[in-house]
């Protein structure tokens, strides 16, 4: 990855380091419930991956490891990767406290193959991950490197249409291109998990269309099993969503999808 991106990654790393304690104490992450046995996983990924008992699983951009440890509780042998050293430190403490045999590696996700040599039955990543990457091809190549032959990759992610909006305005307005290549910089108070926090989030991100996601994976040698789009989200992180009878969040008019998922094999 070109050195020109390093300053962007460093800004994001510092922001995610600062988020860790705020997120760990938030209702969004419900640490008390999680420690008592609640899963942090959603039905999309549980249904997609099924029985993971005895399988090796690499979790990319794992934050402080709740999803990683949730898979571990289901019997998977897990490794989590994240750019934030504060997040990895907390993930390791949680693994020890919960007596889960999961390992955690601190590195830029694009450098995973420099730090992790094992190949896995499953590579998993979810909800707000690819937008931190300027180019998906190195990401897809790394996924192919870390998957064993016949292994499964699964991504569930916010739909690229939702990232065309600027949510810092009073009412969201379309400001960013679906195929925009330039970095998007945002600076705002709080985080998605605690909008009342006094921290100032400083973040660089990039938009990626569905075509880019699928093409990067196929170019890396993966076979796409499916691409699915969903009108609902398990998280109320966008404005003006309503809660449906299933407990999911959706737009009242359902004008565009909120999530998509890709399942692929090597």
UniProtKB/TrEMBL annotation:
<dbReference type="InterPro" id="IPR029063">
    <property type="entry name" value="SAM-dependent_MTases_sf"/>
</dbReference>
<dbReference type="GO" id="GO:0008757">
    <property type="term" value="F:S-adenosylmethionine-dependent methyltransferase activity"/>
</dbReference>
<protein>
    <submittedName>
        <fullName>Methyltransferase domain-containing protein</fullName>
    </submittedName>
</protein>
<dbReference type="Pfam" id="PF08241">
    <property type="entry name" value="Methyltransf_11"/>
</dbReference>
<feature type="domain" description="Methyltransferase type 11">
    <location>
        <begin position="59"/>
        <end position="155"/>
    </location>
</feature>
<keyword id="KW-0489">Methyltransferase</keyword>
<keyword id="KW-0808">Transferase</keyword>
<dbReference type="InterPro" id="IPR013216">
    <property type="entry name" value="Methyltransf_11"/>
</dbReference>
<dbReference type="GO" id="GO:0032259">
    <property type="term" value="P:methylation"/>
</dbReference>
């Amino acid at each position: 990855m070109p050195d020109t991106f390093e300053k962007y990654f460093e800004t994001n790393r510092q922001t995610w380091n600062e988020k860790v304690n705020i997120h760990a104490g938030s209702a969004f992450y419900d640490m008390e419930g999680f420690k008592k046995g609640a899963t942090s996983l959603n039905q999309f990924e549980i249904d997609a991956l099924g029985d993971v008992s005895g399988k090796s699983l690499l979790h990319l951009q794992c934050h402080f490891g709740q999803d990683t440890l949730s898979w571990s509780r289901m019997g998977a042998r897990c490794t989590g990767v994240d750019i934030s050293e504060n997040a990895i430190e907390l993930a390791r403490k949680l693994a020890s406290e919960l007596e889960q045999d999961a390992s955690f590696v601190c590195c830029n996700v694009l450098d995973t193959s420099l730090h992790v040599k094992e190949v896995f039955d499953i590579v998993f990543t979810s909800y707000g991950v690819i937008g931190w990457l300027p180019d998906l091809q190195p990401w897809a190549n790394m996924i192919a490197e870390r998957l064993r032959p016949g292994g499964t990759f699964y991504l569930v992610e916010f739909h690229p249409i939702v990232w065309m909006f600027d949510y810092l305005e009073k009412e969201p307005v379309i400001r960013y291109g679906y195929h925009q290549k330039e970095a998007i910089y945002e600076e705002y108070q709080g985080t998605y998990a605690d909008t009342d926090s006094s921290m100032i989030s400083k973040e660089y991100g990039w938009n990626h269309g569905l075509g880019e996601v699928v093409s990067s994976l196929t170019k890396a040698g993966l076979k796409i099993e499916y691409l699915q789009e969903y009108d609902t989200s398990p998280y109320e992180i966008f404005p003006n969503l309503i809660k449906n009878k299933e407990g999911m969040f959706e737009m009242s008019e359902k004008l565009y999808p909120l999530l998509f998922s890709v399942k692929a094999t090597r």
